[in-house]
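input
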Amino acid sequence: MKTKQEKGDELMASNYIRFDWAMKRLSRNKANFRILEGFLSILFNEAITILDIFETKRNADDDICERFRINLLIQNTKGQQILVEIQNNNEYAYYQRIIFGLSKTLTEYINRGEGYDKVRKVYSVNIVYFSLGNGKDIVYHGKTEFRGIHEGDILELTPFQKQTFKVSQVSQLYPEYYILKVNDFNQVAKSPLEEWIYYLNTGDIPDNATAPGLHEARERLKLDRMKKEELAAYYRHLDNIVILRDNIYTERAEGREEERYSIARNLKQLGASEEVIIKATGLSSEEINKL
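output
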């Protein structure tokens, strides 16, 4: 088990600024668009061009995990202009926060009186640096479909709607969601997306990483480019990350321990022998007798 100091040293060993901190810097300079374009191109699996960044919101009072919300206007390979919202938050009701942020993005970029055909396609990209739900994967993608409750068929667009909206499926008109659980990635990166997730998690960019955007990140997100005051604030941020991770690990450990005791109690109530309970839970005879 690594100490808090060892975890902090690992975070600070990188020569590059972590992406969760760099997000606010990326929105200030169009020269940094290539970094975000590379990340989104890998995530969406098509070439992406950023046309504009509308706003960045931050809650400066939140020291443990600063809150960012970046809204981008992008263009894909089909020439379609799409809104993308990138969130980096730490909240108990995060699933609901995704809906709120995306709804706000939708309403902010349609003028009053415009027809519903002017509603833009929106992607919500959520880079999660904390434990969110239960799942084995590190990247989750969600979209909306309408399925018949009797026939089980998917509701389709009419030929006229397909021609008018330039899409082939109803789900392509609705928001789509991406959740990247970057803290759960603990393996060797074998694909461009995993190279990005490795950087998102560790703040480090391996020399052999070739994913789009990471070359620009190497050039523009170096620690030695930061001013003294900004560097001090950044190191405080890294310290807070260690605190946050320790809290998460502690909660998980406590949860596992409580689960073992709960299983032991149930087995004991069912009349299982002490030997069976020990094998099932790993608890000692003394611990079982105290239940």
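quick obs: The beta strands are 49-58, 68-75, 81-88, 122-128, 139-142, 176-181.
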